[in-house]
Amino acid sequence: MAEPVNKLSLRSQEWIQIALFQLMQKKPYSQISIKEITDRAGLARQTFYRNFQDKDEILLKYLNGLMLGMWKEFQQNEMYNEDMFIMLFNNWKLHAPEALIHNIVLKDRKIRQIIYKSLSDYIDELFINKQEESTGDKPDHRRSYAQKSFSALVHTMLIEWTLQEFNMSPKEMGLLVNHLSASMREFL
What we know:
Elements: H1 5-24, H2 34-41, H3 45-51, H4 55-71, H5 82-95, H6 98-105, H7 109-135, H8 141-163, H9 170-180, H10 182-185
Helix pairs in contact: 1-2, 1-3, 1-4, 1-6, 4-5, 4-7, 5-9, 7-8
């Protein structure tokens, strides 16, 4: 009996993701080809392209899930405070895959760009409803700049902390980011 297409698709996506992370343990993300991923996953290229446009989409999908998991307790909460940041840094340290850490340490610029996109997209989503409530249809440029600055700060701190081999505790990092982002959060 054949499995439904969506189960097969989910299984293929999982195999592709696993293959990518296995390859990332051995070489920089930017140097990994689609052919290497499909060979490692034991799948045809057509299967890859049925599920993903490119390898960046694999990593972005994974990171979006990771970000959602790291921030989930604060989705409905409007407390953007030190507890939120402490939890973020703690979850990053506990749940960021070793292959991702390895590529950050290799200073693969593409990895940093994808991490920033995922983080920025998630932060944009966190604040979008609040912005619509407070401004209606009129755009608030200060809020937009503060939001992007906030995303950049959190991204930079996550990356640098990773490069520094988690030399400070999640609590210390959370308190630092809370302090550094205070003026930005006034506009959010």
